[in-house]
Specification:
Layout: H1 2-5, E1 11-12, H2 18-43, H3 48-76, E2 88-89, H4 97-100, H5 105-129, H6 133-147, H7 149-160, H8 163-195, H9 197-207, H10 210-235, H11 246-263, H12 273-298, H13 303-326
Parallel strand pairs: 1-2
Length: 327
C-alpha cells in the first residue's frame, strides 16, 4: 500500500535512457491511437461524423508511431524496450479501455483536449533529455504536432461535423438522455407520487398513528420502486426502440418511483399527526406541480394539459384516500 502511495515501484522520468524515452513515446502513441479508435467505435452509432474525426486522429497518432519506430530502429535495433506510461512516475495516465467505452460525448471531447496537452508536455520534456540531433528534432516536431492537435481536431470537426451535423448530434444526445433517463424517471415519479397517495392517507386517517402511516408509506414506496424498476428493465431491451440501456432505465424508474412515494411518507416521522399530515399534503402538491413542470419541459406536454393530467388526477387520488380512511 505504501509503495503504491509513494510510487516507489515506478521509474522517475529523469532516470530513463534515450532508448527508453523513445520506447515510451512509441507505446504512448500506440495507446493514444487505440483510444481514438475506441472513441470512434463508441460514437459511430449515434455520431458518425464525429467518429470520422477520431479515426483521422488515430491515423495521425499511427504516423507519429511509425516515425518514432523508424528512428528507434536506426539507433537501437529491432527490439523495442517494453516500457509504458504506467511504469514512469509522474507520467500522464489514460483511462482504461473499458472506461473509454462508457464516456459521454462531451467528456470524450474534453478528455481528447487533455490528452493532446499532456502529450505535448511529454515531448517537450523528452526533447530536453536526448542528445542525438535527429531524435531531438523529431521529438520537437512531435511536441509541436501535439500542440497543433487542438487546431487539427477543430479543422477536422469543421470538415466532418459542420454546424448542421453538430446540431443534429446535440439533438440526438438530448433525445437519448430523455429516452433513457427522463422518460422512465418521470414515469416512475408519477407512479410513485400518485399510486401511493391513497394507501398512505387512508392509513393516516384510519389509524391516526404517524408511525404506522410511515411504515405503510415506506413499504408502498419501496415495493412500487422495485416493481417499476424491474418492469421497465424487463419489458424493453432498448435495441429496437432506441431507448438505451434497460439497466439505466430500470434504475431511473425504480429510484424515482421510490422517491415519489417517500416524499409524502417521510413527514409521518413527525409524532404530531396534524403537523405531519399538513406537511405531507403540502409536499404532495409540490410533487404534482414539479411533475407537471418536468412533463412540460422535457416531454413538451402543454403545461395546462400536464396540470390537468397530474395535479387534478393526483388531487382526486388524495381525496379518495382521505375519504376511505375516514370511512
Amino acid at each position: 500500500m505504501f509503495s503504491s502511495l509513494f510510487n516507489f515501484s515506478k521509474r522517475s522520468f529523469d532516470s530513463l535512457s534515450e532508448q527508453e524515452i523513445l520506447a515510451l513515446a512509441i507505446s504512448s502513441e500506440e495507446e493514444d491511437s487505440r483510444i481514438y479508435q475506441t472513441y470512434a467505435q463508441r460514437l459511430e452509432p449515434d455520431y458518425p461524423a464525429s467518429a470520422k474525426v477520431f479515426r483521422d486522429m488515430a491515423e495521425v497518432e499511427n504516423t507519429h508511431r511509425r516515425n518514432l519506430i523508424a528512428i528507434y530502429r536506426e539507433r537501437f535495433g529491432e527490439i523495442i524496450t517494453p516500457i509504458k506510461r504506467e511504469h514512469v512516475r509522474g507520467f500522464y495516465e489514460r483511462k482504461p479501455d473499458w472506461l473509454q467505452k462508457n464516456l459521454p460525448f462531451e467528456t470524450i471531447r474534453d478528455e481528447t483536449e487533455r490528452m493532446e496537452q499532456t502529450a505535448a508536455r511529454f515531448y517537450h520534456e523528452a526533447a530536453k533529455r536526448v542528445t542525438d540531433a535527429r531524435t531531438r528534432d523529431l521529438l520537437g516536431e512531435l511536441a509541436m504536432a501535439e500542440e497543433g492537435h487542438e487546431d487539427t481536431a477543430r479543422m477536422l470537426s469543421e470538415h466532418h461535423t459542420p454546424e448542421e451535423v453538430k446540431d443534429e448530434e446535440t439533438h440526438q444526445a438530448r433525445r437519448q438522455f430523455i429516452l433513457t433517463w427522463v422518460q422512465p424517471g418521470l414515469a416512475g415519479l408519477m407512479d410513485g407520487s400518485v399510486s401511493t397517495l391513497a394507501p398512505i392517507f387512508a392509513a393516516a386517517f384510519a389509524t391516526g398513528d404517524t408511525w404506522q402511516t410511515f411504515l405503510v408509506g415506506l413499504s408502498a414506496a419501496v415495493g412500487a420502486g422495485i416493481s417499476m424498476g424491474f418492469t421497465e428493465a424487463a419489458h424493453d431491451d432498448g435495441k429496437l426502440s432506441g431507448r438505451g440501456s434497460p439497466i439505466k432505465r430500470g434504475f431511473a424508474s425504480g429510484i424515482m418511483t421510490a422517491v415519489g412515494g417517500l416524499g409524502h411518507a417521510l413527514p409521518y416521522l413527525i409524532p404530531n399527526f396534524m403537523l405531519a399530515t399538513t406537511l405531507a399534503i403540502i409536499i404532495v402538491f409540490i410533487e404534482l406541480w414539479a411533475i407537471a413542470f418536468i412533463q412540460n419541459k422535457f416531454m413538451e406536454t402543454p403545461f395546462m394539459r400536464a396540470v390537468m393530467q397530474v395535479v387534478l388526477g393526483g388531487s382526486l387520488v388524495l381525496a379518495a384516500g382521505i375519504l376511505i380512511g375516514q370511512g
